[in-house]
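Review session, final week

We close the course with one last complete record, chosen because it touches almost every idea we covered. It is Exocyst complex component 3-like protein, a protein from Pan paniscus with 746 residues. Go through it on your own first, then we will talk.
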Amino acid sequence: MDSAAKDEMQPALSPGPEWPEQERAEQLARGAALKWASGIFYRPEQLARLGQYRSREVQRTCSLESRLKSVVQSYLEGVQTGVWQLARAIEVVQGTREALSQARGLLQGMSQALQTLEPLRERVAQHKQLQALSHLLPRLRAVPAAVSHTQTLIDGQQFLEAYVSLRELEQLREDTWAPLGGLELPVFQGLDLLFEALGQAVEAAAGAAGKLAREDPALLVAAVRVAEVETGRTTPLGQVPRDWRQRCLRALQEGLERAHFGSPLLPAPGALPGWLEALRVALPVELATAEALVAPCCPPQYNVVQLWAHTLHSGLRRSLQNLLAGPELEAADAFTLLHWALHVYLGQEMMGSLELGPEADVSQLEPLLTLENIEQLEATFVANIQASVSQWLQNALDGEVAEWGREQGPNTDPSGSYYSPMPAIVLQILEENIRVASLVSESLQQRVHGMALSELGIFLRSFSDALIRFSRDHFRGKSMAPHYVPYLLAALNHKSALSSSVSVLQLDGAPSGALAPVEAALDELQRRIYRLVLETLQAELQPLFADLPSRQWLSSPELLESVCERTGRFCRDFWRVRNPTVQLLLAEAERAVVLQYLSALMQGRLVCRGADERTQAAERLRHDAAQLQQLFLSLGLEENAHCAPVLLALRELLNLRDPALLGLEVAGLRQQFPDVSEDHVSALLGLRGDLSREQHLAALSSLQAALPPSPRASRRVLFSLVPAPALAPASCLPSGSCARALLLAE
């Protein structure tokens, strides 16, 4: 297809500028020219000057064209210069390419030539090595002998000479490395092992530093100097640095621990005190040796004394931890370890000695025993001691109980009082354990104190139970005790001795009520002994009071004389009880006799038949009261503790001739004895035998209208312990007294 055909196939393109901005600029220029021309030639007279305007515009146009030509010419010259420079650059690049191509060809030729010279290069290197070896050959021939000599020096502990020889051998090996290209000759293969042998020898010497400092300090100094020089030396490239200083320090520590704590066997039971005593003597000596002998042999940066103290402390602490992780210690071993660790170790006998410098201070280190260790040891000690104390107290009680059935009465002291060493033994056991615990720590003392009070309470309860069994067996006839009552009285003295001395168990600063449980147990023991003694007295008097009151009682004093005689015989040994317990015992005995007397009066066995018998009964009451008072005064009872005056008050109820005044007497009786009841008063009024039901009720009603008890009224329990007289059950109402109910029923 020809060009004409191609032109026909192309779409028609509208003529126009290459840039839209050019077309717009031309339009703006034409518009501005037209606007200017219309303004200039608007008036006809200005058309005459058209030629001038034309010539001016022609000049301006020529000026613009001239300037445009100049700019275009300058631009064309710059383009021509750039084109020329590009042509020159192309020529230079082409030349450089040709030169590089030639150089590449030359290099390829030289590479082939070098390959042909490679065997020659190897031969040259071998020649250089042989030349170097030929120069070093005399020295290399001496290497085996030098190695053997060095080994001999090491075996002979000549460390400095051995180290110098090794350094020479090592220098010779370094001299052969460069010529041989880093190749090591077989003759030097044992050199590293020889260095290690010297290091081990130096380490062994450091491990025996204490012994060497005393026997051969020069050897220790030589070992330390070798270690220091080797540590400070710059090692050749590729060789691991030998830090012999750290090896020496480790050896010092390990040797020290091995000397004192190296045995894997822990102290056997009972051998711990000897082991700790040996450490108490050895450790200060070791520190003194370190300060006086070892430290001068070592550099100052070794801090020998501090290293010694810390190493001994750490080794001892580890040994104690292993000891506590094993079988549980006995009480003596636990106490010894606590006292030694808390007091002896840091005391002036050991680490706190004034002869040791401040470098040996271990007070800032971890304590030998942790709080858990101390808690474990204290618990172990208290548990074991508690078992021992319990057994000791039980043995003391068993020994005391064994004496109760013997034919001989209780032992007495020089004053005649019943005496037994048991209370002193009990308190001494407890006090001694508390005192010993105070030597360790306040916490252990408080633990043992609590244990002692607990065991004392258990002992008192066991003592009380033993007395009950003793009394039961005695009355049942299983084992009749020849001196039953004296041993009960001796038990009262035991209680008194314990009460008077139990204050020794009171700790300083302890709360005032710490001994309250023990004091309560002592009071309970005393009441139980009183009850056992009085039960025996009542059992002896009960047959005598079976005939009181009676006609025989009204006419003869023999009945009460028998009571007083038997009571006096029963109480004849009461003086062997120490004060103030004897006063309390006599008071309880006198009250027991009076209570039996009152109980017999209220049984209704006697009703007076007339005024004469009432007078006779009143006189008997007065006489009996005087007789009982006289009896207990002779036994040593203080007068203000007597209960017998109650019989004088009852005497007035019988002696009163006018029944209408009985209400006053009954009210007066209530004021003196607030615990008297209507049943008691009714039974007493029944003795008179002359009261009607109305008079009886009137007298009883005066109890309700009685004034409050007098401040001086007896506060001792009396009538409430007297059984009320038994009345017919059908006569008792659900509420109110049986006496009033019976009278109302009638």
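Two points worth writing down before the exam:
Confidence is low (pLDDT under 50) at residues 1-17, 728-746.
The two ends are 168 Å apart (CA to CA).
Good luck, everyone.
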